Amino acid sequence: EGVINVDEHMGKIRKELQKCQKDYGIYSNKINNPNFIAKATEEVVDEARTKAEELKEKIASLEDSLKNFSA
């Protein structure tokens, strides 16, 4: 009890990282698409930008976690 399986934990982090990277790609493509910006409401565009920024920060955090576990 209280013991962490490092390989299992790193696997979970990698899986979450992949999901975040995929989601970030979706939001990044949206906010970099002139058609999306032109057609979507300002609220929707702001939500996409916010979500992309949140995912970018989460990706950095997950990458740091992986570095710390593999160090």
Keywords:
single chain; 71 residues; 3 helices; 86% helix
**Alpha-carbon Rg, integer:** 16 Å
The number of distinct helices, counting runs of at least 4 residues, comes to 3
Distance between the termini: 24 Å
**Largest pleated sheet:** none
The tally of beta strands, per DSSP, is 0
Shape estimate: rod-shaped
What topology does this entry show?
Elements: H1 6-31, H2 34-39, H3 42-70
Question: What is the compact description of this entry?
Answer:
This protein is mainly alpha-helical and 71 residues long. Helix content is 86%, strand content 0%.
Written account of the structure:
With 71 residues, the protein is mainly alpha-helical. It is built from three helices and no strands. The protein has helices spanning 6-31, 34-39, 42-70. The model has no long low-confidence stretch (mean pLDDT 93).
